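Troubleshooting: if your tokenizer reports a length mismatch, compare against these two reference records.
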Amino acid sequence: ISTNIKVIDDNLYGGIAIGKITELVGLSGTGKTQLWQLCLNVQIPKRLGGLEGKALYIDTKKDFNPATLRGLAIALEQQFLKKTAGNFKSSTMIKNVHYVDCSNTAQLVASIFNLKRYMRANPSIKLIVVDSLPFSIRMLENVWERTKLLMELHDSIQQLLCNYFVAVVVTNELGYYRIRRKWRLRTILGDQHTTLINERIWLTKNAYYIGKTLKRRKLLTSI
């Protein structure tokens, strides 16, 4: 699934991969447009190099913006207008983005645990977006409970990837942690989560990076 960012697509051999978990990391205000664009790009017809699928968007932060999605859909319709003879409609694209509102931990857990059932009912879905994964999990005060829940969610997602032709994109957040008397910026969900994702893309306001850790990430391009 193309990200519409050439340097990222080139490094990922075409874009977001089916059968894998790709994570987008960034501070507030970065990366949201890319998520909504992915929900539209997954719908590009097969004869034009797309998957001709649908998207499921699980929203834990209530950041989803239908007006922005509509604007992006209109732009994509115009981009492929001549090649599709007007049959690739923005109105249809918007309807093909299934939306789930998860305002608390219980709703997030229920949504992810029910993904297999949802996929059976909607086999044309080729992209699942969870924005954001840590937002609801952090509501749990007990660290052990948070870790246990995160591992259960990962197990459910891995089972889904083994049985369905779908890509999973999650967003993570950054926070400051005190390590050896110094405050360091790192991803919220920690090392166990890092080992279970396949790709991590860092989106900033002035650069794109790729790599699982802050120290080992590779600069793709400066904006």
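Reference record two:
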Amino acid sequence: KESNGPTDCYAAISQVDRLQSEPESIRKWREEQKERLEQLDANSRKQEAEWKEKAIKELEEWYARQDEKLEKTKASNRAAEEAFVNDAEEVFPGTEWERVAQLCDFNPKSSKQAKDVSRMRSVLISLKQAPLVR
């Protein structure tokens, strides 16, 4: 496809002509600016690599802490389950309310995130104090 306008060859020649006709101060500034930008790019790549290393390290530490917490929780849950099973096997007549009291939290201020169970608590306490007669 032919055209009367400048082609890529002519654009390259005009670019060279422009750079040659450019004053020395502008050429010097352009080179300094190019070096400065390359240095800034290198610094930013270096800092980005440092941040990535730091992030990876912190993530590994976080996973280690989470695994440690999980293992502690598993161990405490197993111990609590074992104690519960041992207590469940020791059933004596007349100790039902003591077992219920052990399973219930009668301190209303200890669990702020739980549902309101004050009515159930009051029912259990009143039944413990005055059991139903059959």
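Descriptive notes for reference record two:
- The two ends are 108 Å apart (CA to CA).
- Helices lie at 8-21, 24-89, 96-103, 118-129.
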